[in-house]
Automatic annotation (TrEMBL):
<dbReference type="Pfam" id="PF17853">
    <property type="entry name" value="GGDEF_2"/>
</dbReference>
<dbReference type="InterPro" id="IPR051448">
    <property type="entry name" value="CdaR-like_regulators"/>
</dbReference>
<dbReference type="InterPro" id="IPR041522">
    <property type="entry name" value="CdaR_GGDEF"/>
</dbReference>
<protein>
    <recommendedName>
        <fullName>CdaR family transcriptional regulator</fullName>
    </recommendedName>
</protein>
<dbReference type="Pfam" id="PF13556">
    <property type="entry name" value="HTH_30"/>
</dbReference>
<dbReference type="InterPro" id="IPR025736">
    <property type="entry name" value="PucR_C-HTH_dom"/>
</dbReference>
<feature type="domain" description="PucR C-terminal helix-turn-helix">
    <location>
        <begin position="385"/>
        <end position="442"/>
    </location>
</feature>
<comment type="similarity">
    <text>Belongs to the CdaR family.</text>
</comment>
<dbReference type="InterPro" id="IPR042070">
    <property type="entry name" value="PucR_C-HTH_sf"/>
</dbReference>
<feature type="domain" description="CdaR GGDEF-like">
    <location>
        <begin position="202"/>
        <end position="330"/>
    </location>
</feature>
<feature type="region of interest" description="Disordered">
    <location>
        <begin position="1"/>
        <end position="28"/>
    </location>
</feature>
Length: 450
């Protein structure tokens, strides 16, 4: 040991000037990538938040997230209808669609809803991976945002997850704002529509102003349609609202010159039509049948009944047409064999029968007149009631009745005679014939409820 100069040097230790110098080479590739992704996240968050403060729609949000991530993106509602979609290419959007078709989507959406946050689904058989984020509005989840998952792994995939989750939050803000505006506009439109349809002792000037605010041209003839809504058994208020919204959208799309307004349990349409009154009512009634069929297929077990009023030639006629449409829909609800869709002009004697407050009185009348014939049919499997119905429709012609029912005219004559024998009534008597016809109308309306 050398103790000169008071220094104690350990043998073999390098001198200070001989020690190796460590050079700082800067952050590694992973850190650089994470910093880049962080900047991307901050920038994207800023842009998305900007959309929330503007009058933006879902399409704008979806287009931004698709463009920045370079993936397909779409928003679907809780009934799996696509509300908006975008992507760098049509194929990118189709990739998301294709993956959805391979999934048990109900379970996926339920899992995302329970977590109330974004979840990632790996790709299968070359399918693009997906990120599914619930769009939350208070306690409700009305829709979901789905994006293709960016390739690259690690931080890049984290970017896709974080960005999708934040975009879903912005979508919730946009949907909430649009729902509020739609509610205000819808309530205002409903108030004006009800003012037109329920107006009593109003001046033409007032009616004209209300119609003008609704965009109704009072120089054209119109028809009023009303749709009564019933949810499936055990259905919720939310289910009834979805049914109403679907009917409202369908009528708006199918009736181009119509003003449509929705209540809690009904939808009303004021439809501009042509000058041919019969053709006008036929066309609106046909849309009513389409509405009933489509709603039944979309919401099995739901009740959609449609009534169509007469043609209005002036604003003061709207209340009359609306009252006719309501009577028609009430009648078809009571008289189930009318098919759920009926125009007021086609009700015939059902217009009077529908005024009977207690439907049991109608059943009792029909049973008194044709009860023995009904019992005979059930016990002997005869076809007298339908023969009688066609016979009346064909103005008592055995030949025409036989042609329609693929029978021999003598068979028709025999059946009519048996009807008279069983009921004790004579169809050649005006009073008896009228009584049987009214009873038959009740049976045809009530069907198996008799």
């Amino acid at each position: 040991m050398n103790t000169q100069s008071g220094l104690c040097l350990v043998s073999g230790a390098p001198r200070a000037e001989e020690r190796p110098v460590t050079v700082d080479s800067g952050p590694g590739p992973r850190v650089v990538e994470e910093n880049r992704v962080l900047r991307e996240v901050v920038g994207l968050y800023t842009q998305l938040s900007g959309l929330a403060t503007q009058d933006s729609d879902l399409r704008s949000v979806v287009a931004l997230i698709a463009d920045r991530l370079g993936v397909g993106a779409m928003v679907i509602d809780d009934e799996r209808d696509v509300l908006a979609s975008a992507g760098p290419s049509p194929q990118a959007v189709e990739d998301v669609h294709h993956h959805l078709r391979q999934l048990d989507l109900g379970k996926v959406l339920a899992a995302s809803a329970r977590a109330r946050r974004a979840i990632t689904l790996p790709g299968v058989d070359n399918d693009v991976a997906l990120v599914v984020a619930p769009i939350v509005m208070g306690e409700e989840i009305p829709a979901y945002l789905l994006t293709g998952r960016p390739s690259g792994g690690g931080a890049v995939e984290d970017l896709g997850l974080l960005a999708t989750e934040h975009a879903a939050m912005i979508c919730g803000i946009v949907l909430g704002r649009h729902r509020l505006v739609a509610s205000v506009v819808g309530n205002a439109r409903l108030d004006l529509v009800e003012a037109l349809l329920l107006a009593r002792d109003r001046t033409e000037f007032e009616l004209h102003n209300w119609a003008r605010h609704l965009g109704i041209d009072d120089r054209r003839p119109h028809v009023v349609m009303t749709v009564a809504l019933e949810p499936p058994p055990g259905g919720s208020a939310a289910g009834l609202a979805r049914l109403g919204a679907y009917v409202e959208r369908l009528l708006t799309a199918r009736l181009s010159d119509a003003t449509v307004a929705r209540r809690d349990t009904s939808v009303v349409a004021i439809v501009a039509v042509g000058d041919d009154e019969r053709a006008a009512v036929d066309e609106v009634t046909a849309v009513g049948r389409l509405c009933r069929a489509s709603s039944g297929a979309r919401y099995p077990g739901s009740g959609v009944n449609v009534g169509v009023g007469g043609v209005c030639r002036g604003l003061s006629d709207f209340a009359r047409s609306y009252a006719e449409a309501r009577l028609a829909v009430e009648t078809t609800i009571r008289m189930t064999r009318l098919g759920g869709v009926v125009a007021f002009r086609d009700l015939g004697i059902q217009r009077l029968l529908s005024r009977v407050a207690d439907v049991d009185d109608l059943r009792a009348f029909a049973a008194d007149v044709l009860g023995e014939l009904i019992a005979h049919e059930r016990n002997n499997s005869t076809d007298y009631l339908s023969t009688l119905s066609v016979y009346f429709q064909e103005n008592d012609s055995p030949k025409r009745t036989a042609k329609i029912m693929y029978l021999h005219p003598n068979t028709v004559t025999y059946r009519i005679r048996r009807v008279e024998e069983i009921t004790g009534l004579s169809l050649s008597s005006y009073r008896d014939r009228l009584t049987v016809q009214v009873a038959l109308e009740i049976i045809n309306g009530l069907g198996d409820e008799l």
